[in-house]
Amino acid sequence: MQLLNSKATGRAVGQRREKTLAPLQPLRAPLASSSVSIAQEDRGKLATCRAASPTAVVQPTRELEAARDPAEPPSTNGGDRSHETDYVVIGSGIGGLCCAALLAKYGYRVTVCESHYLAGGAAHSFAVGGYRFDAGPSFFLGIGGPPGDGSPNPLKQVLDAVGESVETKKYDRWVVYPPEGGFFPNIASGSAYEATILKHGGPEALAQWRALDKAMKPLQTAAGLFPAAALRGDLGVALTGARFLGPEMMGMGLIAPLLTGPFSALVDKHVTHPWLRAFLDLECFVLSGMTARDTLCAEMAFMFAERNAGRTAIDYPMGGSEAIISALVRGIEKHGGRVLLRTHVEQVVMEGGRAAGVRLRPQGPASASASASSTTKPELIRARCGVVSNASVWDTQKLLPPGAAPEQWRRTSLKTPALDSFVHLHLGIDATGLPSDLECHHLVVNSWEQLTGPQNVIIASVPTVFDPSLAPPGKATVHCYCAANEPYDLWAGLDRRSPEYKALKEERAAPLWEALERFIPDIRDRTELKLVGSPLTHERFVRRHRGSYGPGISAAGGAGWPGPKTPVPGLTVCGDSCMPGIGVPAAAASGMIAANSLAPVWSHLKMMDALLPQPGSGGAKAAAAAAPARR
Ligand SMILES: Cc1cc2nc3c(=O)[nH]c(=O)nc-3n(C[C@H](O)[C@H](O)[C@H](O)COP(=O)(O)OP(=O)(O)OC[C@H]3O[C@@H](n4cnc5c(N)ncnc54)[C@H](O)[C@@H]3O)c2cc1C
């Protein structure tokens, strides 16, 4: 099927002209320079948005497929995309799609606007020359079980809620290449993990590890007991969370400050062994882009919980990260929502001090006449209930007209520290003679001292190990990158077509080649396709301020991550700039929390009834059995 291409019809991804939406009609309001008015007679509708009319189920009409190939013809100036909906979601990252899917499930009319020609944000996949690459994440936990399996992963919970699933290959390890040479498997299970610590750190490190693990147990219990699906950003959480406040939660009040503080609070107490401290910092860095000093203890509690759960929990989605994005898009569409690609939001439209819609950037001119029409006809999407931004904390501010937001909030948001960016190497290689036991994930550490330094930690994956269909027969795909450690300033202001830019790409990709040679020594000879991505690539394709991995909000700083609510009426936020932070599960949780916060409490409770095992039920017992803290 054709991924959305608003082309001539101005319709969404896999969208047929649906009966449930109000007929598309251009808004009559004139476009002002900084803000746009919405027609007077429509204002009353804003007040009634909470009583959103349930939408009829619309079956998906297309599969996400060919349009993801860059060979797809460029966008043409299609029909007018203006229409009216309940919520507009700006951005189709994991957070935006999860939020939109749940809002649609709750019965709201939802339109997702995505700048890119592919959905997924950092988690999009793309195809070149018969190879299919994950642009970002390829490491997923707990997304592949049967519906209602009690997975604590919020992404899985959203998929369950909208009746979608992803086929995955389950596995249990990745390989670490430390600076002292050699390599060792890092196995995602408690006892195997202990064996690694004993081998590399010795008995003292193991004893300290066990003390830390013991200290983490109550935190794992607390983190596991309160599912993201029960969270919302208002007082309604007293009702939706009440059913999880059983006896097991008694005493958890004492634990809350530890959970919301830095992981180092526990590490400093129990671990002095230098190798183990560095190894724990490494785990934190690959999760949050920061060391134990700044990483939220709750994030680590989930990781400990998964590791101690005694199940093979790492999942590679068949078809790559695109399979997850496709499932979320299907979930949106089948509940009557739409995902518009190549649809860049220029500005949030304010009406009476409230976010009431979005103004779109005119689509690229395919002809002189198209160009003329795109400049004379502003396209507006009116959102009766409000706007949700999945853009980053910095980029959301750029979308607000002057004066729309309180100055202090605007300034604080813009001052949020940004983690560094990326260099990527995407390769299509000849797979002839590759070892049959080649692992998918590899983590190279060049120095334990400068852990977060530029190009020090390098991550690589060979997803064709699990899914050969991602490459032509006899070939393999490789994705290698430095995450959160490439300084944007090295690249700032460079013209992407200039020889300087091309030379810098080669220079900065050199350590990635060396990292790959640790496990495929003849990788250069095997390479048939090479793409180097820079911070500018990331900035452009994911529309991220300075191509950042995300906000560097320290758990030690006390400020905390922002929730879904903003001081701008009608504007909600989600994505990895929000609580609980960076990573696929966290971004999914933020989307879920945003949608829950916008839904009436009774709808939220109903969703939870369908989704989460009731405490004391058989499902709950099964989930409890799987949860480490209750074993
Ligand atoms: C290379 C890499 C590897 C990673 N590896 C992992 C991993 O293995 N496991 C893991 O859990 N996490 C990983 N992460 C982190 C994880 O992928 C991200 O935290 C998460 O996907 C971010 O989702 P998000 O909801 O914040 O949206 P984003 O991905 O930031 O998407 C936001 C979307 O909004 C769109 N947008 C912005 N402004 C506008 C506008 N004005 N109009 C229209 N659209 C707009 C953008 O185009 C973009 O598509 C990785 C990230 C990267 C980059």
TrEMBL record:
Basic and acidic residues composition bias: residue spans: 62-71
InterPro entries the UniProt entry points to: Amino_oxidase (IPR002937), CrtISO-like (IPR045892), FAD/NAD-bd_sf (IPR036188)
SUPFAM superfamilies in the cross-refs: FAD/NAD(P)-binding domain
Domain Amine oxidase, first and last residues per copy: 299-597
Residues covered by region (Disordered): 1-26, 58-84
Top-level taxon of origin: Eukaryota
One of the record's GO molecular function terms: oxidoreductase activity
GO biological process: carotenoid metabolic process
Alphabetical list of PANTHER family matching this protein: FAD_NAD(P)-BINDING OXIDOREDUCTASE FAMILY PROTEIN, PTHR46313
Annotated protein name in UniProt: Amine oxidase domain-containing protein
Taxon lineage: Eukaryota, Viridiplantae, Chlorophyta, core chlorophytes, Chlorophyceae
